[in-house]
Structures are given as structure tokens and as C-alpha cells.
Amino acid sequence: MSAETLGTNLLREVKVEGLDELLRTLRSKHEPQNPKNYTGEPAIDKLLNVFTHTRDRFSHQHQNPVLELVGSSPCSGKTQLLYHLIARLLLPPSHEDTPIQGKNTAIILFDLSNSFSLIRLRDIITGYIRSQNPLNPQLLDQNSLNTLIRISLHHHHIFRPQSSSSFLSTLKSLQNYILNIHAHISANRPVGAIILSNIDAFIHQDRLDDGHRIPASTPPTHILLSHDSNFLGISFVIIPTHT
Questions:
Q1: Nearest to 92 by CA among 117, 65, 129
Q2: At residue 8, what are phi and psi to the nearest 5 degrees?
Q3: Which of 29, 106, 176, 238 is a Cys-bridge partner for 186, taking CB atoms 3.0 to 4.6 Å apart?
Q4: 10 Å Cβ neighbour count for 200?
Q5: pLDDT per residue over 101-116, tens digit each?
Q6: Judging by DSSP bridges, how do beta strands 236-241 and 94-95 pair with one another?
Q7: Sheet with 191-197: strands ordered across
Q8: pLDDT digits over 74-88, tens only?
Q9: For residue 84, which of 45, 41, 46, 130 has the smallest C-alpha distance?
Q10: Helix/strand/coil (H, E, C) string of the chain?
Q11: Which residues contact 11 (CB under 8 A, 6 or more apart)?
């Protein structure tokens, strides 16, 4: 067999495909078969599913995904996005036959800088509900709307620790609080997310008091992503940070 004939036969065995086909094949191998609906926001859920699926393929230990909101500058929209996600997670899928597309979960928020505004959250929830019915934004009367918002906010649990040591202590006792059916009314709801707002709030305080500094060996995310938090059924952790 001549070299030319051999080369021709070898070329016949080579499969030729375009770059787009190759990328589709790679994406199909890395995308989860049964993606989870974490937040109800398709773009964010797709990112969370891709990263958690890729990580779980190489690890035998499941961990909850962490979403860190970082802005390139002040007023970049990360806080607004955080309020919107909280609204989606708190609201039910529907109310009085009105579709809302919520997740009907409970939220745990650590407001470390004491800056979270329930008034702002109420306004965003109101606007979101109206936006779900653009053809008839007044489908829910004001009394029904107020009742829905009040019920939803009852499942928004806010902690405001005043130091890194109290913050860490509260994190460690979080499981006992969530499982205590006498401490709150959210026993019938899963925990949709744990949110750490302004996680760097105590940096300057800790520099002045080394004795209360959070040990580097026990970061907050380690506690939240432990087996205990998995047991609680927490969907994911949001960590909005300043830049």
C-alpha cells in the first residue's frame, strides 16, 4: 500500500466538525440533566447549576452553591438585585389565583451593617407583583396585596449582630433556631437562602480588637456549607460584598 493510499484511508477515519458543534457537545456534557430552580431567575439559576454540577462531578461531598454579588462601583445595582431575589424567594407561586412566580421559602438575612430596609423591600415586592400581571396590574386589590406582603415578610428572618464574634456565634446556633418550631412561623417552609449582607462590616473593628477576630480557620462560608446546613435544606448562600 502506497503512502498516498494510506493517507487517504486515514483521512476517511477523521471526523470533521465545526467549532459550534464542538462547543455544543462540551456544553451538553457539563450541563446538569435536572437543573434546579434556585431563585426563579433563569440567568442566575443557570450559572448556579453549571458551577454546582461541574464541582459535584469532581467531589463526592455535595455543597450548597454560593452566589457573591460584587459591583464594579457604588450604585451598580447589586443591592437592588439582592432585594429582588429576596422578593422572589419569599413570595408564593400564586395568590388568590393570581400567578406570582415566587418560591414560597423562608429567608435568613444577616444585616451586618444595619442598613437593610424593609420599606424598600415592601416597595420592591409590590412592584414585582404588579409586573407579573402587566395587562391587569390591579388584579389584586390593596387589601389582598397588603395581606400577601405581610405574610411573606413574616418569613424574612433578620439578624443584626454587633461584632464578628456574635456573628460567628449566631451562625453556629442557626440550625437550632431554624428547627425550633416555637421560635418562628416558618417551620412549614424550606430555607430558600442565607444572606450575609456586607460581610466585611467588622474588619476595622476586628483590627482594633484582635481577641474577637473571626479565626481564619473558621470562615463563615465554611459553617454555612457544612453538613448541618445541608441538613436544613438550604438552597444557596448569597454574599453581597462591597468593592
A1: 129
A2: -65, -45
A3: 106
A4: 12
A5: 899 999 999 988 888 9
A6: unpaired
A7: 66-70, 236-241, 191-197, 106-111, 156-159
A8: 777 788 888 999 999
A9: 41
A10: CCHHHHHHHHHHCCCCCCHHHHHHHHHHHHCCCCCCCCCCCHHHHHHHHHHHHHHHHCCCCCCCCEEEEECCCCCCCHHHHHHHHHHHHHCCCEECCEECCCCCCEEEEEECCCCCCHHHHHHHHHHHHHHCCCCCCCCCCHHHHHHHHHHHHCCEEEECCCCHHHHHHHHHCHHHHHHCCCCCCCCCCCEEEEEEECCCCCHHHHHHCHHHCCCCCCCHHHHHCCHHHHHCCCCEEEEEECC
A11: none
Q: Can you read off the three cell numbers belonging to residue 233?
A: 435544606
> Grid coordinates in use for 140?
389584586
204 vs 211, which has greater pLDDT?
204
User: C-alpha cell of 91?
Assistant: 413570595
A 10 A CB-CB count for 86 gives 23
Q: The C-alpha cell of 176 is what?
A: 437550632
Cell of 54: 461541574
The bridge status of strand 98-99 relative to strand 94-95 is antiparallel
The model scores a pTM over 0.70: yes
